[in-house]
Structure formats: structure tokens, C-alpha cells
Design goal:
The structure holds 2 protein chains of 2 kinds.
Chain A lengths: L1 H30 L1 H7 L2 H9 L2 H6 L2 H13 L1 H26 L4 H6 L2 H7 L2 H34 L5 H28 L4 H13 L14 H5 L2 H6 L4 H24 L3
Helix pairs in contact in A: 1-6, 1-9, 6-9, 6-10, 9-10, 10-11, 10-14
Chain B lengths: L1 E11 L6 E10 L3 E5 L6 H8 L7 E6 L2 E2 L3 H4 L3 E4 L11 H11 L5 H10 L13 H13 L5 E5 L7 H16 L3 E5 L3 H7 L2 E6 L2 E7 H7 E6 L4 H10 L1 E8 L2 E7 L4 H8 L3 E4 L3 H10 L6 E3 L1
Parallel strand pairs in B: 3-8, 3-9, 6-7, 7-8, 10-15
Antiparallel strand pairs in B: 1-2, 1-4, 4-5, 9-10, 11-13, 11-14, 12-13
The chains are: A mainly alpha, B alpha/beta.
Chain lengths: 263, 299
């Protein structure tokens, strides 16, 4: 327990700053739909289309403007795309990196792992570090998924608590998988720069399946943003199970590595 | 009763030619055991293997009657001070001691307070601003505030001023008198000589010499041959074990192991061989600079 509290204390500032960012963005995005609408000038778009006749060839001018108007009027689509599909997703990616990248790498870089390993067992260290980072990730995802439900009555849009649970489950499962990747990178690195850069590269690579139709099912950000939930109203359970399985495998591999690691 | 037993222990490293091989080693409970060796001889690796911070490839190790991997049983009974005295740089001395009080099993607050009077540090000072010597003092407080039976100290006096060095050595002696076993490595041969009961000299990952210091001084001889003399060499080979041999100017210095009558017999038969007074430093230098590959265990 003392080690777990020490790990939580190590993460407290990062967690607080991320929570403030999360709340600020939620207030801006979820509470200011009208502001978003006022920023889009349909007349300007219309003028733009006039100057680009090729758009009209592929897509009738009236149809395009009509559909655009419909999209802008769809508050549900706005909440999902701007919150779950964009801002929360990016914040969770940032949070996952910040919660995990220094877990072991900083201790190794600063040489403090000797102090820990002399006084605590490898199992205790592994469990405490994993628990602290996971708890922060879980809380962050849960709050992020629940914020629309909390703010819905205040800003007059529909978002139920059951939807929050659905989005939360999918977001958390994907976030934990990404967390375990960064955690592993931190474990095998002797400085904090490698896991930081490594996770950015891996996260960028993970977006590739999103651009290739035949491997869309491997596109993890689709599950994180809850695309399936928005269109079908259902959690994508097979994806959740696969993600949890992959997370378990990665964490087990990390433990085996840590168990035999020379300090 | 041995506090530490090592048998047939071997450790190699990827991407390194260095390997450590300890065929047999016993360290008695309540003793102060010194580990000597040139840089890169394997002293820190040996201590880390004992603490299970580095995993041996093979071999049997027992600490305090437990297998050394049984960390749950050994955690509270062993304390370790690493070569680099790194602690959490962002904390103050006081915060670090508070953290240690919560994390270190068998923490003795009274002992910590007492040690803080011996090694005075400003409690509000950040660890990142401490000098090497001050970090060593802080690590000493944390190490010895733990009620351990076995203390492993990797260069505990490095960077300390003479006053603090003296306090450290007194502390080590006190702990030994209380029945605790101390193993420490150092390059300060003079301080080792006045503190330790037994020692081991490591050379290129192998034990070059080990045993109790008093017996070692009784059974080892340092001789100088005045001329390049094959008969002297063959005499020594027949009547003693040559542990080391090195050139000093035009002289050859031999380090030999034999019995008590060796000196008398040699002086009678090989008068050109001159017996030299020696201390641990001469013994160490002769062993380390020698190309001989013999090693000795003097129980």
C-alpha cells in the first residue's frame, strides 16, 4: 500500500493537469454547441462551392448544403464526433502516455530502482506501479465518458448514463491496451525519451488500419471513439475481449521481463 | 555459521566479455567482509547478485539460511547501499526519510534520528542539491536505519570527507559488534585493512584471493628476488604456491602462500630472496598486476 500511494503521488500533478484540461475542454465542446454553429458560415461555404465547380459535378450543390445543414443540426452527431471521436480520444492518448512513459524508465534513469528493489519485492513494485497507472487511466476514461451525461441536463442535449457506460467500457478497454504498450516500452527503456518517442510512433502506426478499408477491424481508434456504439447502439464485445486479451498478454510479458531483469 | 554461501555461481552479460565466476565463497555471520578488486573486477555485480538485483545464470546462493531468491523472507533482513547513491532527486531530505520510513521494512525511527546526528543534513534541502558525499550520508542513514542482519555496502566511503569516513567505519564496526554481518567493497585499502575480518580480492570476475585477514597475513609472503633467478622461481614453486608475481624495476616481487616454516627454510636455502614487510595494499597490487592465474582460499 505505501508503494501504491507513492506511485499515485508521483502521478498526481499529471493527473490533475489532465483533469483540468478535460473539464475545460468538456465545458467548451459540450457546453457551447451554439458557439460551434456560429463559427460555421454556410454562406461562405456556398461561395466556396461556386468557385469549385468540380464539387458540384460529384455532389449537387443543393444536396451538399442540405446534408451539411442536417449534420450541423444533429446535436447527437456533434457530441459523439467532437467529444468521443476527437477531443476526448486525443486527451486519452495523451493521458496514457503521461501515465505510463516514466513508470520504470525514470527510476532506471535516476538509479532509484535500487532503493525500491532493495526494500520491496519485484511483485510489489510491479503491482503498485501497474495499479497506480491503471487507476489513473480508468478514472480519466470514466470521467471523460461520463461528462456528456453529467452536462446533458445543463446544456440541453440528450445523453444517457447507459450510453456513458457503453462509451466508457469501450474507451477504457482500448486505453488500457495502449497503456500496457507504453508501460512495456517504459520497462525496457533506460531513459524516459525512448518510451515517449516510441509510444508516439506506435500510436501513429495504429492509425494506419483506419485508412485501409479491408483492415478496418484492426483500427483501434474506432473502438476508442465508440463508432459502433454511435451507429448501432451496441458495444463491440469481440473487440473488447480481444483488446483485454492483448492487454493481459502484454502485461504478462512485461512481468516475465521484469521478473528476470538485471538492475 | 555462514551468513552467505555461494557455490558455483556464474553470471555473463550480453554484449560484454565480462563474466563473473564464484566457485566457492562463505562469509561468516557477524563478520566484516571486504570485497576488493580493480575497476570492472565484478565487485558491484557480486553484491547485486546477492541482493537478487542481478540474476545469476547458474549456481546456488544462500543468505541467512534462505535461498537468495526468497525475497519475501530476506527483504527485511538485508540492506543494500548501491555504488551510485541515487535517491529521489525531487524530494527533500525529510521527505525522503519519510518515504523510507513507509517503504523500508524494519525501519527504526530512533536509529534514523541517531544517525541523523552522526551525519547531519539539512532536512529541508532537496536531494538534487546534495553533494555526492551528502547523498552517501543520506543513503547511510536509510541503510542502517533498517533493522537488517546483513548489510551490503558498495563503496560506502567514496566521496566522504575524513571525518565522515571515520564515522562510517565506526558505524560498520558497531553493527558488526551487534552481531550483524557487513559486506563492503572499497578502493580505500587502508580503511578496509583496519576494519575487516576477512576479505576477497576479485580479478577479472574471478576470486584471486579470499580468507580471514589475520590468517592471510600469516600465510602469505612477499618476496623480492634481486636478480632474474630461475632457481629462486623453482624453489618457490616447489615450496609454496605463487599467487602473484610482478616486476618492480629490476626486481621480481613474488606473492606466495605457504606454511609458517617457509620463511626460515627459504632464508636458509635461497638467501638471494628477500622477505618484504607488506600490507594489504602491496598484496593487492601484486595480485592485480600479476599475470599468474593461481588463486587461494585461506580459511
Amino acid at each position: 500500500m505505501p508503494l501504491f500511494l507513492k506511485e499515485l503521488a508521483d502521478l498526481r500533478w499529471r493527473f490533475l493537469i489532465l483533469i483540468i484540461l478535460l473539464l475545460g475542454l468538456a465545458y467548451l465542446i459540450l457546453g457551447h454547441y451554439e458557439l460551434f454553429l456560429s463559427m460555421i458560415d454556410l454562406q461562405e461555404i456556398e461561395q466556396g462551392i461556386q468557385q469549385a465547380p468540380w464539387i458540384k459535378r460529384f455532389y449537387g450543390e443543393q444536396n451538399l448544403l442540405h446534408e451539411l445543414q442536417q449534420i450541423m443540426d444533429n446535436k447527437q452527431l456533434y457530441i459523439w464526433s467532437q467529444w468521443f471521436g476527437k477531443n476526448l480520444l486525443q486527451l486519452v492518448l495523451l493521458a496514457v502516455i503521461l501515465f505510463a512513459f516514466s513508470t520504470f524508465a525514470r527510476e532506471r534513469e535516476q538509479g532509484t530502482l535500487h532503493f525500491l528493489m532493495t526494500n520491496c519485492s519485484r511483485k510489489e513494485i510491479f503491482a503498485a506501479k501497474l495499479a497506480a497507472g491503471s487507476v489513473c487511466t480508468l478514472l480519466f476514461c470514466a470521467l471523460g465518458a461520463w461528462l456528456p451525461a453529467i452536462l446533458a441536463p445543463l446544456y440541453d442535449f440528450a445523453f444517457t448514463s447507459s450510453q456513458a457506460v457503453q462509451y466508457g467500457v469501450q474507451l477504457t478497454a482500448a486505453a488500457l491496451f495502449l497503456y500496457s504498450i507504453v508501460w512495456f516500452l517504459s520497462l525496457v527503456s533506460t531513459d524516459v525519451v525512448k518510451p515517449l518517442l516510441g509510444s508516439i510512433v506506435i500510436f501513429a502506426l495504429l492509425s494506419i488500419p483506419g485508412r485501409i478499408a479491408s483492415i478496418q477491424s484492426l483500427y483501434i481508434y474506432r473502438y476508442m471513439s465508440g463508432t459502433d456504439i454511435f451507429f448501432s447502439g451496441q458495444i463491440h464485445w469481440p473487440a473488447i475481449l480481444v483488446l483485454l486479451l492483448l492487454t493481459t498478454i502484454l502485461l504478462y510479458g512485461s512481468w516475465k521481463y521484469f521478473e528476470q531483469m538485471d538492475i | 555459521m555462514p551468513a552467505v554461501e555461494m557455490h558455483d555461481v556464474y553470471k555473463s552479460f550480453k554484449n560484454s566479455h565480462f563474466d563473473l565466476k564464484i566457485d566457492e565463497l562463505q562469509i561468516q555471520k557477524g563478520s566484516i567482509f571486504g570485497v576488493l578488486g580493480p575497476n570492472g573486477a565484478g565487485k558491484s555485480t557480486l553484491l547485486k547478485i546477492l541482493m537478487d538485483l542481478v540474476k545469476a545464470d547458474k549456481g546456488q546462493i544462500r543468505l541467512l539460511d534462505c535461498k537468495h531468491q526468497e525475497r519475501s523472507r530476506l527483504q527485511a533482513r538485508t540492506a543494500f547501499m548501491p555504488e551510485n547513491k541515487d535517491l529521489y532527486a525531487s524530494l527533500t531530505v525529510e521527505q525522503m526519510l519519510d518515504l523510507a520510513a513507509r517503504l523500508v521494512p524494519g525501519w527504526r525511527q530512533q536509529k534514523a534520528s541517531h544517525l541523523l546526528t552522526l551525519f547531519p543534513l539539512r532536512s529541508e534541502q532537496k536531494i538534487s542539491t546534495l553533494s555526492w558525499g551528502e547523498k552517501t550520508q543520506l543513503y547511510t542513514i536509510i541503510t542502517f536505519a533498517k533493522a537488517a542482519d546483513l548489510y551490503l555496502l558498495d563503496e560506502p566511503t567514496r566521496g566522504l570527507d575524513p571525518v565522515m569516513q571515520e564515522r562510517m567505519l565506526s558505524l560498520i564496526k558497531e553493527e558488526s559488534i551487534d552481531g550483524h554481518t557487513i559486506i563492503f567493497s572499497s578502493h580505500q585499502i587502508a580503511e578496509l585493512e583496519e576494519t575487516i575480518d576477512a576479505l576477497m580480492i576479485l580479478k577479472q570476475g574471478r576470486i584471486a584471493l579470499s580468507g580471514e585477514l589475520d590468517l592471510l597475513k600469516e600465510n602469505c609472503f612477499l618476496l623480492a628476488s634481486t636478480t632474474p633467478d630461475h632457481s629462486a622461481r623453482s624453489w618457490l614453486e616447489q615450496h609454496a604456491r605463487i599467487l602473484g608475481c610482478r616486476h618492480v624495476g629490476e626486481h621480481l616481487i613474488y606473492l606466495c602462500q605457504s606454511d609458517a616454516s617457509f620463511q626460515e627454510r627459504t632464508q636458509k636455502n635461497q638467501p638471494q630472496l628477500q622477505f618484504l614487510d607488506f600490507g594489504l595494499k602491496q598484496l593487492f597490487i601484486t595480485l592485480v598486476e600479476s599475470e599468474e592465474d593461481n588463486h587461494a582460499f585461506i580459511p
